[in-house]
Write a structure and sequence with these properties.
Layout (H helix, E strand, L loop, with lengths): L20 E4 L2 E7 L10 E7 L3 E8 L3 E12 L2 E4 L3 E4 L4 E6 L3 E7 L3 E3 L4
Length: about 120
């Protein structure tokens, strides 16, 4: 049996002590749980840290995506989501994401997203 992943004080900045790596232009990722066997139907949990002005191009959700904004604000065509907001993007939904002032989110993908605009 594996030990659980424990992140003390996550809501009060405990994520700042975790290792991040480049993910997309202006966005860094800290992988918390992911399948390393190559399976495409396995959930993935991560923290994403957006630099001010960072964007993720339009993408399609091939499974449920759950986001909890921990710091700053993340936005899309449907609104701006401040710290403490949870957003559920259903399978089949699509959007582009931006962080005007930067943000950190806890994100879970049920299945990988499909980038739509070629970026």
């Amino acid at each position: 049996m594996s030990a659980p992943v424990v992140i003390p004080n996550l809501l009060n900045g405990g994520w700042r002590q975790l290792p991040f790596e480049p993910f997309r232009d202006g966005v860094e990722i800290c992988h918390l749980h992911r399948d390393t066997t190559g399976a495409t139907d396995s959930p993935h949990w991560a923290l994403l840290r957006y630099a001010p002005g960072a964007r993720v191009p339009e993408h399609l959700h091939t499974g449920l995506e759950t986001i909890l904004v921990l710091e700053g604000a993340q936005g899309d065509a449907f609104g701006t989501y401040e710290a403490g907001t949870m957003v559920l993007n259903a399978e089949g939904s699509r959007h582009a994401v931006y962080a005007a002032q930067g943000c950190v989110v806890l994100i879970q993908w049920q299945r990988p997203v499909q980038i739509l605009d070629g970026s």
